[in-house]
Amino acid sequence: MRLLHTSDWHLGRAFHRVNMLAAQAEFIGHLITTVRERGVDAVVVSGDVYDRAVPPLAAVELFDDALHRLADLGVPTVMISGNHDSARRLGVGAGLIGRAGIHLRTEPSACGTPVVLRDDFGDVAFYGLPYLEPALVKDEFGVEKPGHEAVLAAALDRVRADLATRARGTRSVVLAHAFVTGGEASDSERDITVGGVAAVPAGVFAGVDYAALGHLHGCQTITERVRYSGSPLAYSFSETDHRKSMWLVDLDAEGAVTAERVDCPVPRALARIRGTLEDLLADPGLTRHEEAWIEATLTDPVRPADPMARLAERFPHTLSLVFDPERAPDDPDVSYAQRLAGRSDQEIAEDFVAHVRGAGPDEHEQGVLRDAFDAVRADDAVREREVAR
Protein backbone atom coordinates (compact mmCIF):
# COMPACT_ATOMS: atom_id res chain seq x y z
CA MET A 1 0.00 0.00 0.00
CA ARG A 2 1.28 3.44 -0.94
CA LEU A 3 0.65 6.27 1.54
CA LEU A 4 1.16 10.00 1.22
CA HIS A 5 2.03 11.40 4.66
CA THR A 6 1.60 15.12 5.29
CA SER A 7 0.78 17.34 8.27
CA ASP A 8 0.81 20.86 9.70
CA TRP A 9 -0.95 22.68 6.89
CA HIS A 10 -1.83 25.57 9.25
CA LEU A 11 -4.47 26.90 6.88
CA GLY A 12 -5.09 30.57 7.59
CA ARG A 13 -1.62 31.31 8.92
CA ALA A 14 0.43 34.26 7.66
CA PHE A 15 4.20 34.45 7.33
CA HIS A 16 4.97 37.63 9.23
CA ARG A 17 2.73 40.09 7.34
CA VAL A 18 2.42 38.01 4.17
CA ASN A 19 -0.90 36.26 3.52
CA MET A 20 -0.07 32.62 2.72
CA LEU A 21 -3.48 31.51 1.45
CA ALA A 22 -2.41 31.45 -2.22
CA ALA A 23 0.68 29.38 -1.34
CA GLN A 24 -1.46 27.03 0.75
CA ALA A 25 -3.87 26.62 -2.18
CA GLU A 26 -0.91 25.84 -4.45
CA PHE A 27 0.21 23.17 -2.01
CA ILE A 28 -3.25 21.57 -1.98
CA GLY A 29 -3.14 21.45 -5.77
CA HIS A 30 0.31 19.86 -5.61
CA LEU A 31 -0.94 17.26 -3.12
CA ILE A 32 -3.85 16.34 -5.40
CA THR A 33 -1.51 16.04 -8.40
CA THR A 34 0.88 13.85 -6.41
CA VAL A 35 -1.93 11.53 -5.32
CA ARG A 36 -3.13 11.17 -8.89
CA GLU A 37 0.25 10.82 -10.61
CA ARG A 38 2.09 8.68 -8.06
CA GLY A 39 -0.57 6.02 -7.55
CA VAL A 40 -1.26 6.86 -3.90
CA ASP A 41 -3.64 4.46 -2.12
CA ALA A 42 -4.28 6.55 1.01
CA VAL A 43 -3.51 10.04 2.30
CA VAL A 44 -2.71 10.66 5.97
CA VAL A 45 -2.80 14.18 7.48
CA SER A 46 -1.31 14.24 10.98
CA GLY A 47 -2.86 17.31 12.56
CA ASP A 48 -2.75 21.11 12.61
CA VAL A 49 -4.97 21.36 9.56
CA TYR A 50 -5.85 24.89 10.67
CA ASP A 51 -3.64 27.41 12.43
CA ARG A 52 -6.12 28.28 15.16
CA ALA A 53 -9.26 26.96 16.80
CA VAL A 54 -11.52 29.47 15.03
CA PRO A 55 -10.03 29.76 11.54
CA PRO A 56 -10.84 32.57 9.09
CA LEU A 57 -13.53 31.89 6.50
CA ALA A 58 -11.03 31.79 3.63
CA ALA A 59 -9.13 28.98 5.38
CA VAL A 60 -12.37 27.02 5.91
CA GLU A 61 -13.22 27.42 2.23
CA LEU A 62 -9.78 26.12 1.21
CA PHE A 63 -10.18 23.13 3.50
CA ASP A 64 -13.63 22.46 2.03
CA ASP A 65 -12.10 22.57 -1.46
CA ALA A 66 -9.36 20.14 -0.40
CA LEU A 67 -11.94 17.68 0.98
CA HIS A 68 -13.97 17.76 -2.23
CA ARG A 69 -10.92 17.25 -4.41
CA LEU A 70 -9.65 14.36 -2.31
CA ALA A 71 -13.09 12.74 -2.32
CA ASP A 72 -13.34 13.14 -6.11
CA LEU A 73 -10.09 11.19 -6.50
CA GLY A 74 -11.64 8.23 -4.69
CA VAL A 75 -8.52 7.85 -2.56
CA PRO A 76 -9.22 7.38 1.19
CA THR A 77 -7.91 10.07 3.50
CA VAL A 78 -7.34 9.77 7.27
CA MET A 79 -6.93 13.04 9.17
CA ILE A 80 -6.46 13.93 12.84
CA SER A 81 -6.71 17.18 14.81
CA GLY A 82 -3.55 18.82 16.16
CA ASN A 83 -2.88 21.18 19.04
CA HIS A 84 -3.72 24.22 16.87
CA ASP A 85 -7.06 22.78 15.74
CA SER A 86 -10.38 22.79 17.51
CA ALA A 87 -11.12 19.07 17.62
CA ARG A 88 -14.85 19.76 17.90
CA ARG A 89 -14.93 22.08 14.91
CA LEU A 90 -12.72 19.91 12.73
CA GLY A 91 -14.75 16.83 13.61
CA VAL A 92 -18.18 18.29 12.74
CA GLY A 93 -19.90 15.99 10.28
CA ALA A 94 -17.16 13.36 10.54
CA GLY A 95 -19.60 10.47 10.19
CA LEU A 96 -21.17 11.91 7.06
CA ILE A 97 -17.85 12.97 5.54
CA GLY A 98 -16.51 9.49 6.22
CA ARG A 99 -18.99 8.12 3.65
CA ALA A 100 -17.02 10.03 1.02
CA GLY A 101 -13.79 8.35 2.14
CA ILE A 102 -12.50 11.26 4.27
CA HIS A 103 -12.02 9.92 7.79
CA LEU A 104 -11.68 12.62 10.45
CA ARG A 105 -10.37 11.36 13.78
CA THR A 106 -10.70 14.01 16.52
CA GLU A 107 -12.04 12.08 19.55
CA PRO A 108 -9.47 10.63 22.00
CA SER A 109 -11.93 7.90 22.95
CA ALA A 110 -11.74 6.48 19.42
CA CYS A 111 -7.96 5.92 19.43
CA GLY A 112 -8.39 2.15 19.36
CA THR A 113 -10.95 2.14 16.54
CA PRO A 114 -9.18 2.06 13.19
CA VAL A 115 -10.08 2.88 9.62
CA VAL A 116 -9.42 -0.44 7.86
CA LEU A 117 -8.35 -0.39 4.20
CA ARG A 118 -7.41 -3.33 2.00
CA ASP A 119 -4.82 -3.97 -0.68
CA ASP A 120 -3.68 -7.10 -2.51
CA PHE A 121 -1.95 -8.37 0.64
CA GLY A 122 -4.76 -7.89 3.15
CA ASP A 123 -5.86 -5.31 5.71
CA VAL A 124 -4.10 -2.13 6.82
CA ALA A 125 -5.52 -0.60 10.02
CA PHE A 126 -5.15 3.18 10.35
CA TYR A 127 -5.38 4.49 13.93
CA GLY A 128 -5.94 8.22 14.33
CA LEU A 129 -4.61 9.64 17.62
CA PRO A 130 -5.59 13.33 17.76
CA TYR A 131 -3.47 15.69 19.83
CA LEU A 132 -3.84 14.51 23.42
CA GLU A 133 -3.74 17.38 25.93
CA PRO A 134 -2.69 15.48 29.09
CA ALA A 135 -4.74 17.46 31.59
CA LEU A 136 -7.90 17.02 29.50
CA VAL A 137 -7.61 13.32 28.61
CA LYS A 138 -6.03 11.81 31.73
CA ASP A 139 -9.38 10.49 32.95
CA GLU A 140 -10.22 9.00 29.56
CA PHE A 141 -6.98 7.00 29.63
CA GLY A 142 -6.88 6.34 33.36
CA VAL A 143 -3.47 7.88 34.04
CA GLU A 144 -2.76 9.17 37.54
CA LYS A 145 -0.44 12.05 36.66
CA PRO A 146 -1.03 13.90 33.40
CA GLY A 147 1.92 13.87 31.03
CA HIS A 148 2.50 13.46 27.31
CA GLU A 149 4.29 10.12 27.60
CA ALA A 150 1.64 8.66 29.90
CA VAL A 151 -1.40 9.53 27.77
CA LEU A 152 0.26 8.66 24.46
CA ALA A 153 1.46 5.33 25.84
CA ALA A 154 -2.07 4.57 27.07
CA ALA A 155 -3.49 5.42 23.64
CA LEU A 156 -0.94 3.10 21.98
CA ASP A 157 -1.91 0.35 24.41
CA ARG A 158 -5.44 0.59 23.00
CA VAL A 159 -4.03 0.41 19.48
CA ARG A 160 -2.05 -2.75 20.25
CA ALA A 161 -5.03 -4.31 22.03
CA ASP A 162 -7.18 -3.79 18.97
CA LEU A 163 -4.48 -5.09 16.63
CA ALA A 164 -4.27 -8.26 18.69
CA THR A 165 -7.89 -9.04 17.81
CA ARG A 166 -7.37 -8.70 14.06
CA ALA A 167 -6.38 -11.22 11.42
CA ARG A 168 -2.77 -12.34 11.42
CA GLY A 169 -0.73 -10.20 9.05
CA THR A 170 -2.82 -7.04 9.50
CA ARG A 171 -0.49 -4.08 9.03
CA SER A 172 -0.82 -0.91 11.06
CA VAL A 173 -0.39 2.83 10.58
CA VAL A 174 -0.71 5.29 13.49
CA LEU A 175 -1.26 9.01 13.02
CA ALA A 176 -0.13 11.05 16.04
CA HIS A 177 0.49 14.70 16.85
CA ALA A 178 3.26 14.92 19.43
CA PHE A 179 6.85 15.89 20.17
CA VAL A 180 8.88 12.67 19.94
CA THR A 181 12.38 12.44 21.40
CA GLY A 182 15.02 13.01 18.75
CA GLY A 183 12.91 15.47 16.79
CA GLU A 184 14.23 18.94 16.02
CA ALA A 185 11.88 21.83 16.75
CA SER A 186 11.59 25.24 15.08
CA ASP A 187 10.28 28.61 16.25
CA SER A 188 6.84 28.15 14.68
CA GLU A 189 5.47 25.28 16.77
CA ARG A 190 3.30 26.11 19.75
CA ASP A 191 4.81 24.93 23.03
CA ILE A 192 3.12 21.79 24.39
CA THR A 193 5.37 21.36 27.43
CA VAL A 194 3.71 19.79 30.45
CA GLY A 195 5.51 19.09 33.71
CA GLY A 196 8.68 20.46 32.13
CA VAL A 197 8.69 17.57 29.63
CA ALA A 198 7.20 17.72 26.14
CA ALA A 199 9.00 14.88 24.38
CA VAL A 200 7.92 11.24 24.38
CA PRO A 201 10.20 8.34 23.43
CA ALA A 202 9.85 6.75 20.00
CA GLY A 203 9.53 3.41 21.79
CA VAL A 204 5.85 4.11 22.56
CA PHE A 205 5.18 3.21 18.90
CA ALA A 206 6.63 -0.30 19.27
CA GLY A 207 4.65 -2.86 17.31
CA VAL A 208 3.35 -0.33 14.77
CA ASP A 209 4.43 -0.67 11.14
CA TYR A 210 4.44 3.08 10.45
CA ALA A 211 3.93 6.12 12.69
CA ALA A 212 2.94 9.21 10.68
CA LEU A 213 3.78 12.13 12.98
CA GLY A 214 2.74 15.75 13.01
CA HIS A 215 3.66 18.81 15.12
CA LEU A 216 7.33 19.47 14.26
CA HIS A 217 7.71 21.52 11.09
CA GLY A 218 10.88 19.93 9.76
CA CYS A 219 10.70 16.71 7.73
CA GLN A 220 12.51 14.16 9.91
CA THR A 221 13.21 10.47 10.28
CA ILE A 222 13.18 9.46 13.96
CA THR A 223 13.43 5.76 13.02
CA GLU A 224 12.66 4.01 9.75
CA ARG A 225 9.11 3.48 11.00
CA VAL A 226 8.61 6.78 12.86
CA ARG A 227 8.70 9.95 10.76
CA TYR A 228 7.61 13.57 10.66
CA SER A 229 6.47 14.94 7.31
CA GLY A 230 6.93 18.51 8.51
CA SER A 231 4.87 21.48 7.34
CA PRO A 232 4.50 21.98 3.59
CA LEU A 233 5.38 25.67 3.94
CA ALA A 234 7.80 27.60 6.12
CA TYR A 235 6.14 29.59 8.89
CA SER A 236 9.23 31.09 10.59
CA PHE A 237 12.74 32.08 9.62
CA SER A 238 14.04 29.25 11.80
CA GLU A 239 12.88 27.03 8.90
CA THR A 240 15.18 28.75 6.39
CA ASP A 241 17.21 25.58 5.84
CA HIS A 242 14.22 23.22 5.74
CA ARG A 243 13.45 21.25 2.60
CA LYS A 244 9.65 21.22 2.61
CA SER A 245 8.22 17.89 1.51
CA MET A 246 5.81 15.02 2.09
CA TRP A 247 6.61 11.34 2.63
CA LEU A 248 5.58 8.84 -0.04
CA VAL A 249 5.57 5.59 1.95
CA ASP A 250 5.23 2.05 0.60
CA LEU A 251 4.15 -0.72 2.98
CA ASP A 252 4.92 -4.16 1.59
CA ALA A 253 3.12 -7.41 2.38
CA GLU A 254 5.15 -7.86 5.58
CA GLY A 255 4.79 -4.25 6.72
CA ALA A 256 8.33 -3.21 5.73
CA VAL A 257 8.64 0.51 5.01
CA THR A 258 10.17 2.23 1.99
CA ALA A 259 9.93 6.04 2.02
CA GLU A 260 10.64 8.78 -0.51
CA ARG A 261 10.46 12.54 -0.07
CA VAL A 262 8.23 14.50 -2.44
CA ASP A 263 9.15 18.19 -2.52
CA CYS A 264 6.49 20.86 -2.02
CA PRO A 265 6.22 24.12 -4.00
CA VAL A 266 8.25 27.00 -2.54
CA PRO A 267 6.48 30.37 -2.90
CA ARG A 268 9.67 32.33 -2.20
CA ALA A 269 13.08 31.46 -0.78
CA LEU A 270 13.96 32.49 2.80
CA ALA A 271 17.24 34.07 3.88
CA ARG A 272 18.74 35.25 7.13
CA ILE A 273 21.39 37.91 6.73
CA ARG A 274 23.55 39.52 9.43
CA GLY A 275 25.92 42.45 9.63
CA THR A 276 26.00 46.22 9.86
CA LEU A 277 23.47 48.02 7.71
CA GLU A 278 26.13 49.46 5.39
CA ASP A 279 27.73 46.03 4.93
CA LEU A 280 24.39 44.41 4.07
CA LEU A 281 23.61 47.10 1.52
CA ALA A 282 27.02 46.78 -0.15
CA ASP A 283 27.94 43.07 0.08
CA PRO A 284 27.94 41.57 -3.46
CA GLY A 285 27.68 38.08 -1.96
CA LEU A 286 24.08 38.83 -0.94
CA THR A 287 22.87 39.43 -4.49
CA ARG A 288 21.38 35.93 -4.59
CA HIS A 289 19.03 36.89 -1.72
CA GLU A 290 17.59 40.06 -3.25
CA GLU A 291 14.28 38.38 -4.17
CA ALA A 292 14.01 36.26 -1.02
CA TRP A 293 11.96 36.88 2.10
CA ILE A 294 14.55 38.36 4.46
CA GLU A 295 15.22 38.39 8.17
CA ALA A 296 17.99 40.93 8.70
CA THR A 297 19.98 41.10 11.93
CA LEU A 298 21.78 44.43 12.29
CA THR A 299 24.95 44.46 14.37
CA ASP A 300 25.54 48.23 14.31
CA PRO A 301 26.60 49.42 17.79
CA VAL A 302 24.14 52.33 17.40
CA ARG A 303 20.75 51.75 15.77
CA PRO A 304 20.86 53.37 12.30
CA ALA A 305 18.17 55.68 10.96
CA ASP A 306 15.38 54.22 8.78
CA PRO A 307 16.92 50.74 8.60
CA MET A 308 13.83 48.96 7.20
CA ALA A 309 13.29 51.48 4.42
CA ARG A 310 16.95 51.40 3.44
CA LEU A 311 17.08 47.59 3.46
CA ALA A 312 13.92 47.44 1.35
CA GLU A 313 15.66 49.38 -1.43
CA ARG A 314 17.92 46.38 -2.01
CA PHE A 315 15.84 43.61 -0.43
CA PRO A 316 12.21 44.53 -1.21
CA HIS A 317 10.85 41.46 0.61
CA THR A 318 12.43 42.18 3.99
CA LEU A 319 9.94 41.00 6.61
CA SER A 320 11.83 40.90 9.90
CA LEU A 321 14.39 43.25 11.42
CA VAL A 322 16.42 42.23 14.48
CA PHE A 323 18.90 44.42 16.35
CA ASP A 324 21.84 42.61 17.89
CA PRO A 325 24.64 45.12 18.44
CA GLU A 326 28.03 43.52 18.85
CA ARG A 327 29.13 44.11 22.44
CA ALA A 328 31.40 42.45 24.92
CA PRO A 329 29.69 39.64 26.92
CA ASP A 330 30.06 41.64 30.14
CA ASP A 331 28.55 44.81 28.67
CA PRO A 332 25.62 45.86 30.93
CA ASP A 333 23.62 46.79 27.84
CA VAL A 334 23.38 43.18 26.64
CA SER A 335 19.64 42.81 26.02
CA TYR A 336 17.24 41.08 28.36
CA ALA A 337 15.96 39.07 25.39
CA GLN A 338 19.44 37.73 24.75
CA ARG A 339 19.76 36.62 28.35
CA LEU A 340 16.46 34.75 28.09
CA ALA A 341 17.04 33.22 24.66
CA GLY A 342 16.55 29.45 24.64
CA ARG A 343 15.34 29.26 28.25
CA SER A 344 12.06 27.63 29.25
CA ASP A 345 9.34 29.31 31.33
CA GLN A 346 10.36 27.07 34.25
CA GLU A 347 14.01 28.12 34.03
CA ILE A 348 13.13 31.81 33.82
CA ALA A 349 10.88 31.54 36.88
CA GLU A 350 13.56 29.69 38.85
CA ASP A 351 16.13 32.34 37.92
CA PHE A 352 13.73 35.05 39.09
CA VAL A 353 13.33 33.33 42.45
CA ALA A 354 17.09 33.11 42.80
CA HIS A 355 17.49 36.78 41.86
CA VAL A 356 14.89 37.97 44.40
CA ARG A 357 15.71 35.63 47.26
CA GLY A 358 19.40 35.03 46.76
CA ALA A 359 18.91 31.24 46.42
CA GLY A 360 17.10 29.18 43.82
CA PRO A 361 13.97 27.11 44.57
CA ASP A 362 14.34 23.73 46.24
CA GLU A 363 12.88 20.51 44.78
CA HIS A 364 9.46 21.07 46.34
CA GLU A 365 9.29 24.65 45.11
CA GLN A 366 10.32 23.56 41.63
CA GLY A 367 7.36 21.17 41.67
CA VAL A 368 5.03 23.98 42.72
CA LEU A 369 6.23 26.11 39.82
CA ARG A 370 5.80 23.20 37.39
CA ASP A 371 2.26 22.56 38.60
CA ALA A 372 1.43 26.25 38.24
CA PHE A 373 2.65 26.37 34.63
CA ASP A 374 0.77 23.15 33.82
CA ALA A 375 -2.44 24.58 35.31
CA VAL A 376 -2.13 27.74 33.22
CA ARG A 377 -1.58 25.72 30.04
CA ALA A 378 -4.53 23.47 30.84
CA ASP A 379 -6.76 26.51 31.52
CA ASP A 380 -5.67 28.04 28.20
CA ALA A 381 -6.53 24.80 26.40
CA VAL A 382 -9.97 24.66 28.04
CA ARG A 383 -10.72 28.30 27.19
CA GLU A 384 -9.65 27.75 23.58
CA ARG A 385 -11.97 24.79 23.27
CA GLU A 386 -14.84 26.74 24.84
CA VAL A 387 -14.30 29.57 22.35
CA ALA A 388 -14.30 27.02 19.53
CA ARG A 389 -17.75 25.81 20.57
Automatic annotation (TrEMBL):
UniProt keyword annotation of Hydrolase present: yes
InterPro entries to which the protein is assigned, alphabetical: Calcineurin-like_PHP, DNA_Repair-Maintenance_Comp, Metallo-depent_PP-like, Mre11_N, SbcD, SbcD_C
Swiss-Prot/TrEMBL keywords: DNA recombination, DNA replication, Endonuclease, Exonuclease, Hydrolase, Nuclease
GO molecular function: exonuclease activity
Pfam families in the cross-refs: Metallophos, SbcD_C
Sequence intervals crossing the membrane: none
Calcineurin-like phosphoesterase domain residues: 1-217
Keyword Magnesium: no
Annotated Nuclease SbcCD subunit D C-terminal domain residues: 267-355
NCBIfam families from the UniProt entry: sbcd
General function of this protein: SbcCD cleaves DNA hairpin structures. These structures can inhibit DNA replication and are intermediates in certain DNA recombination reactions. The complex acts as a 3'->5' double strand exonuclease that can open hairpins. It also has a 5' single-strand endonuclease activity.
Subunit and interaction comment: Heterodimer of SbcC and SbcD.
Record protein name field: Nuclease SbcCD subunit D
Species this protein is from: Streptomyces lanatus
